User: Fold this.
Amino acid sequence: SLRYTPGTEPSTANNVPDQLIDPGDTNIPGIIEPDRSYTGGTANIWVSASGGPEWGGCEVWISFDNLSYSLMGRIEVPSPQGDLTAPLPFLSWMSSNYLDTTSTLSVDLADSDSTLPTTATHDDAEYGRTLCLVGTEIVTYGSVDLGAGPFDFDLTYLERGWMDTVPQAHIVGTRFTRIDPSTVFQTVLSPEYIGVPIWIKLPAFNKF
Assistant:
């Protein structure tokens, strides 16, 4: 026969998630004000964000005076973000033709714990399906190769200067954000706030 002895229950402490675990800070976000031809004629703000391994998302608070903030929504899916691991040059002919088939956009996405799909086509680049924010320039890519590490990627067949941004040289460490509609927070600006400075806070919550 079996007899239960109090105090001999197996411990479940290791299986209980720590709901108070520190999520860490939200990484430096990618924030753009896209051309209205991409937003149906309305003025928008797009915010992409990510964090470390315990980061589960963040709230999006916006202010127009840096005193009073309004909660606009939440980001619950991280955007692939990281830094350039090699320089991306500016080429003199970009003043008239922004297709760049000679440069490689090399990125490390470790700080967002993210990866990129390993397939992309030239059509993806030409139709804006692979938008990325590199510094202050918006770039698309049409080919992906894996780099040396699990979070390293080499992007080629680049179209430079999307959304009227200026093609420019970018140094190692320049911030990279993949602008994916499935992860980007979007909000419409009221006409009275167009051209007005905006402050954004992104307090993080953990994955539990």
Q: What stands out?
A: The radius of gyration is 21 Å. The mean pLDDT is 89. The helical segments are 122-126. Residues 65 and 130 are 34 Å apart (CA to CA).
